[in-house]
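Journal club side-thread
Mid-discussion, someone asked how the predicted structure for our own chain would compare to the paper's figures. Pasting it here so we can look after the session.
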Amino acid sequence: QVQLVESGGDSVQAGGSLRLSCVASGNTDGIVGLGWFRQAPGQELKGIAGLYITTHDTHYPDSTKGRFTISQDSARNTLYLQMNSLTPEDTGTYYCAARDPRRRLDLGYASLQRHEYDYWGQGTQVIVSS
């Protein structure tokens, strides 16, 4: 089992920045697929950043490309999401997720699909006001 704990959510003004963190613990050996997801009020959960550790491949949808950066500090077992130029549309609960290499085949790339992930954090809330 893997446990994920997010932090860093806050209320900010439009145009501001935030950095979210996700600390992983438990049986994290071999995990190479990590992602950040967002659930905006009244909307479904969507992938906003993906990371494939083996090749450092990253993947973003158009809504976050150029503004958000996913990164990892393996020594600290921590996943980050740097968010710049925030807009009210970025408001929501943010979740980190990890793909279990013992349950699934290696994708070989960073995925933004929620069904590709097995472990989830409890979420951290971001509110962006105009």
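Post-session note: The radius of gyration is 14 Å.
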